[in-house]
Amino acid sequence: MAGRCAPGRFAQPVRFAAVGGVNTATFYACYLPLHRLLPYFAAYSLAFALSMAGSFLLNTYFTYRTRPTWKKFLLFPLTQVTNYGMQSAGLVALVGWCGMNSTLAPLAAAAFALPAGYLVTRRILRPPARTGASAGASAGAASGPATGPARDAAGQAGAAPVRSGDPA
């Protein structure tokens, strides 16, 4: 039990980073051969698109421990639009402005985009609880301290969302 308390706060970001590592390796395994056949940006774009489905599955099952749904799958590209935009801007800046090697630049660009990608992905795959559902939970919580982590609609444990009006 003691092993679960301290790491719980950082478990999701660590899992997200691990999935990002696997996804980056998958992306890079696609990018390198495509880079030999296509201009670097075209190779980058195609490899990015190919690695997205694996990223979705790993993030739903492993990072956020939630069930994949068609709605989440259809919204997931929105997380990737942010990621793609940030990484693309980083790629162009690193190659075009800084003169970095176009074979290594995608890895550096991915590292810069990681924090924003985490926040947007979490918002899509683990949306905050609805007010109606949280009202019932609040009524039960008013009688005493919480005895465990917040649970989503599927009964899976997760961090409770913090809202601006919530006490610290």
Explain this structure.
- With 168 residues, the chain is an all-alpha fold.
- Helix content is 71%, strand content 2%.
- It contains 5 helices and 2 strands.
- The longest helix has 36 residues, at 2-37.
- It is elongated.
- The chain starts with a helix and ends in a 10-residue tail after the last strand.
- Residues 133-168 have low confidence and may be disordered.
Mean pLDDT: 76
What is the strand tally?
Answer: 2
Number of helices: 5
The main β sheet shows up as:
2 strands, antiparallel
The span between the termini is: 24 Å
Radius of gyration: 19 Å
Query: Helicity range of the residues?
Result: over 70%
- The strands making up the biggest β-sheet line up spatially as 1-2
Proportion of strand residues: under 5%
Q: Which consecutive residue ranges, at least 5 long each, have pLDDT under 50?
A: 133-168
Instruction: Return the structural class.
Output: mainly alpha
Overall geometric form: elongated
Secondary-structure element order, as H and E? HHHHHEE
Entry summary:
This protein has 168 residues and is mainly α. It contains five helices and two strands, in the order H-H-H-H-H-E-E. A two-stranded antiparallel ribbon has the order 1-2.
Record keyword descriptors for this entry.
168 residues, mainly alpha, two-stranded antiparallel sheet, 5 helices, 2 strands, 2% strand, elongated, disordered C terminus
Write the layout of secondary structure elements.
Layout: H1 2-37, H2 40-63, H3 70-97, H4 105-125, H5 131-141, E1 150-151, E2 157-158
Antiparallel strand pairs: 1-2
Helix pairs in contact: 1-2, 1-4, 2-3, 3-4
